[in-house]
Fold each of these.
Amino acid sequence: MKNSTIAIDTKFPRTDAYGAIGMPVYHTASYEFETAKDMADAFCGRVLAPEYSRMMNPTVMHLEDTVKALTEAKNVFAFGSGMSAITNALLVFVAQGKNVVTSKHLFGNTVALLNNTFARFGVETRAVDLLDLNAVREAIDENTACLFLEIVTNPQMEVADISALAEIVHEKGVPLMADTTIIPFTQFSAKRLGVDVEVVSSTKYISGGATSLGGLVIDYGTFPVVNMRLRFELIPNVGGYMSPHAAYMQSLGLETLDARYRVQAQNALTLAKRLKEFSTANPQLLTVNYIGLEDNPFHDLAVRQFGKTAGAMLTIDLADRKACFSFINHLQLIRRATNLFDNKTLAIHPYSTIFGPFSGRQKQEMDVRDTTIRLSVGLEDVDDIFEDIVQAILDNK
Ligand SMILES: *Cc1c(COP(=O)(O)O)cnc(C)c1O
């Protein structure tokens, strides 16, 4: 079956007593057992049956099963947020004295997690230029816990050569963990590109219009420690498992993901092309950065890895911060908000917001510019989105 069908027709963990078409929401903390032995088997992991909703919940399991079918993963674990998924996945591999090799281009909270939180526990972060494969090779040593990367970085829009990086780390027995939030896993196979553990903020494309927070760890089974530690150590001990209500909304979102994504990616491509055209006669718009544009330096690599579509995130650059703030203030349709892949188009100035807590020097090192606006393109009519952007640029004073 094709992904759009799998997303809708994956079977429930058990047949529903009433034949409900939608997966029931199991708002319960705990589950009763027939016998003492059944109870002991569930608690000791000899049988996978829910005993307490911090570890397992049928509504969450249904979301996990659907994602498992879509990605051909060995195991999928759902968490309360993307950051919770990332934290738990990294906790599988890190320990005092270990290091994480990663990019200098990373989501703001992931940078802070590594550099502030994990650093306090003696875990070192080695931020390198992932376009320099030799630098990556040299950064890895016998204490490297994993290579962590984002498939398309934001706001720099750098695309990682996943297969090339996978080859380097696998030669050394090191796992590759990839944050694939920016392109939905229904569009490409991270597994085939050599990713061992995929992490996703399901708050974004999957939630179906920013309905809820969520995160997924998609385990391809190449490092059995992932299943063991997440299922039997980290999920019980750290307690970041997804709530049944969030899983219900995210399962609904997953059902419409394919239809929504096709429109959003097409809107983003149309918008990028029209803005590029507009910029030739309007020098206030300095650059349009979208990996779906044929003249983008990462376009060929993106097509090779992710297929025809290039996601719904793009950036534009204006003259300076003043022009960016004025642009944001003049928007009439587009929302001044963070988040990605809402049904609504969103605009943000990352330098002063998401990366606001970082110093000017840190931002320079991360290539986060004061002139960049990030756009997440929604489901509105693309003519209306384009017109709003144009009026906000031209109204700039
Ligand atoms: C949003 C995002 C996260 C964090 O996810 P939350 O669900 O907000 O916790 C991590 N990585 C990327 C690339 C993101 O866009």
Note: The first strand starts at residue 75 and ends at 79.
Amino acid sequence: MNSDEEKYYYHPLENIEDVDIFYDAVERNHLTKSVSPERPYTYWTIELYDQKNGIRGGGGLGVLAADTRRVAEKMGVPFALITPFYPYEMHQVMRNGQVVDEQKPVSYKDFGFKYIDSVNVKCNNKLCKLDVIEKKFNSTRIIAITEPNFRELYADMSGSDHRLYQEVSLGFGGYAALKLLGLKPAIMQLNEVATFFAALARLDELASNGMDFYEAVVYTRKHTLYTNHTLVQAAEAEFSREQFDRYVYPNLKSLAVKKWISDKFVNDRIKLSAVTIEISELRSGVSKLHARVANYHDVAGNRVKFRAVTNGIDMDTWVMPEVMREYEADDILDAIGKPTPNYEQKLNLINSEKIREYKSIGRRILNDALRNRTDQNGRVLQFSDDDFIFDFKRRFVDYKRPDLPFRNTFRLRNILEPRGAHYIIAGRVHAGDSTMYGKLLHLLSLVAQDDYLRNHVHYISDYDEALAFGLSAGSNVAINLPIVGLEACGTSWMKDIANLNLLISTHDGGVADASINSYLNVSGASEEEELDMLYQRMEEAVQAWNSDFDLEYLIQRQLAAYLPVISGARMMQEYLDYLFPV
Ligand SMILES: *Cc1c(COP(=O)(O)O)cnc(C)c1O
């Protein structure tokens, strides 16, 4: 490359003093500095689900990112979340019996973001100019990079040029954006491997600014946390050497870093998980079970250990305000949403009378969420307090088994009909997943063939935050059936428990953080056995809502076991304790 080009695309980085900090810290044998407004906790994510701020995600990964920032704000943690602002958002609707994906343009100007400046990254022999925009929320901020042709979240296939472009832009562009704002990361948390290039940008900055390469690796490693959400490494995207030639190397200044990354290719292909492991000394999984079973190996072939930090949710976002006030007034939760030391003794205050009262408030929230949506038959649904509602709300992916309850529609009908109960399904099919589009349509055709189910099983398309909240507030029973071992954590069941719904679930993800006797468990040696137990549990759940004693007992038991797990403040505290040990 010629020096003219060089001048162009290397955004002038502020001269770093990280080198001095490093040697100073080595002397004191303590590498990690605590967070401050100038050295914030930085959180990197390709997906954010925060519609109030104009950013619509795809699922749990994005919801977690939004909740993590909200909890940091509540706790006064200096925190910067770095993410793309996608100029298009995806919606999924049913039209003429088909599932259709649609794009809608969005502008950051409508959501209170401030334009800061632009930064450049080199991509495919071009200079790509990215706008840096920012929105502040007390001690926290969202820093986003964007440009008109950035396209939508998860555009194209994983492993495609455009995905690599998006990931390189977030990493190198986002890192340059931090510098532009005068921020140095105290820690870089990588929310999955699509954010790897942020850590690479830091390594490159250190190594090309006077730090010995190996020390730069140590420094970067000690300040990078890789949070894994995927169970098997094989499932991860790969890129080719040729793609790196066009998108990655041109953004690197240090020859040593180029060489380092070049050595990580196997048969001219590179797995981002493999290099993310190499660049992070701190690694976490998102539930106790997941951290234990995630099967990852470093380049030397050694099994990678993950620290368990179970996901939590931002209580104020996901719990009905009336229920939050109850938790606080009863001294069950403190001001930041963490259970008090004696919370278990206070749970008897959540009696059946209150549970029913809050559910009737929740039903109004659900009706609000349903008012401008229709089910598969084009009907707008509104429910009364007497209606009984089961819900299954989660991405329509195979391992979550949305179709399991429909294996025996005769039996399902016999559970629902005596109580006049409804069953609501909500969840997006991953764009392009033809297997799951097919399963959804098949499920709906089974439902259409039965004259009871036809009017009592409802598929609501375009699953989003408002519907997730409405269902957790307003239904009676939530159903969660991942194949055991495949759910990393899951957070929608947390919303259900916190909003006083009964949970029927397999023992997987974060649910397995507590004992199997804490909720209405589904298990079995085969899928047939699991299905049988599911139907029994559904019958039990209907019975429980008929009995004040049972209802109170089951709801209190869930809260006793899971309030600490659910608490986002607990999650943030665990991250801080792990990253900044005293
Ligand atoms: C909470 C939430 C999720 C998380 O779903 P899980 O299946 O529990 O991981 C996904 N999408 C939306 C819109 C949510 O609100």
Note: Residues 3-87+113-311+574-579 form a domain with the Rossmann fold fold (CATH 3.40.50.2000).
